[in-house]
Fold this protein.
Amino acid sequence: IFDGLKQLALNFQNSIATTINFSNLRPKLSLIRSTQGVSAGPVSFIRIFASTFEALRQNIQGESTATQTIILNIHHPDILEYLIFIKNFQKNSSNRHFLFLIDLTPAFLEALERNDDFELINPQNQQVINYLSSKNTFNLIVSTIQENTQLGLIQTTPSSRNQNTDQQISISGTLNLAEYYTAAEVPKEDGNKSKLRQLDLTNLHTDLLHIEKYLQNQKTQLAKSQDYPVNVRLFLTGFADLLIRLHISQTSVQSLEIIEQITQAFKSSLGPAIEVGASLTSPLSGLFDSSRGLEIYESLYTSRSNVDGQETFTIITPLRQTLEELGSDKPELVHQVTQTHSLQSLTQLPQEIRNLFFTSKELSTEFHLNLQKLFQSHLTGTIDKKIIFENGLDLEQTKEIIISYLRQGLRTIRFCSFEPLLPMIETEPHSSTDNFLLNTYKMKKRQHQQIQPPLFQIKKTEEIIIPPLRQQTQN
């Protein structure tokens, strides 16, 4: 274990993402025959790994730190201790480059559907040593996700679960989808010209062939220097920018067609050894000046405080370019965007333009889950997609949504956010005699009242009622 920790620490310093599965470690208080002692359990070693990465992270500047992923199976006897550790982790650490996953199984979901107990299995001998209430355990999982968004869920297939995935090293490349589009002017019947925007599949195929050759070469070089399995992944970024440049709304049928074309290009150009996914933590999206992964923009502007304390606002590049093309990049309009956080109330802009710039907080939870499910149905890699849950949803509603999509085959729910959705506000256009500052103040006040999130009651760690254990019946 500690030899593995040394190697993983070296990988961490070189910004190599690592996945560590502790599911095969014997449970806490298990007898160790060689020393006649008892095992400390996987959570004790998880604490050691987390402390090591925390110390290393303090010597690394910027957001280029690779995310380290820790996995524990739902049937492991120490699953409750694992959940309590995660609840306390966010309180005691500022490290956001950790992701904790719980590996769910069809057997657990079936027990949850029947509101029955599920088995806790010793990974050393595969014997059932105890039972837990599936309902109470899942309640604890969801409440932990609400309190610490570094916890996610994963469903691995039986074949992949049987593979040696305790420790893996990943090398990856990033592809900016925003660059693969063409815009050509075509004549119209009335004599004017319009732009025909299309996905540039030719250049996409060509670049994918070069990327595969490079990544396979890197895999060969890395495999010579260490003994752990090496995964090769190609991460996507700039999906939202691509749709904007193609003038396609995220919620339209055309966006689904674009997804089909992109995934077919990957299947025909890349070998099966390269996984295709999306990452929320890739620093390259900042270098590309593009949207992250498969994410819709969370905000239409960025803010920065000057030395004198004055706050300045900068709208995102695609919106600024669109407003410049329309000749609508006036300070008043930009100011309204920063006050309303949305384009949907700005009726002076064409509806087709407003449809291009929905923010992630204006789209339903089902939209985010459906988008991730669609990509996961076509791609085999890790899809990191932030799932925004409405802050008004209670525990039972959140559980129903998660369970529904897990049963539909959703492989992962890795990043969650509980935020209020922005309401669609329809405002009448202002007349030239209106006082702009007064109207803006009223709009801001009304917007604040409508999006003010209700207080979400979350139980503290010490108040959590641990599901009762029931010893296996002896025949």
Q: What stands out?
A: The mean pLDDT is 77. DSSP finds 16 helices and 18 strands in the chain. The longest helix spans residues 201-223.
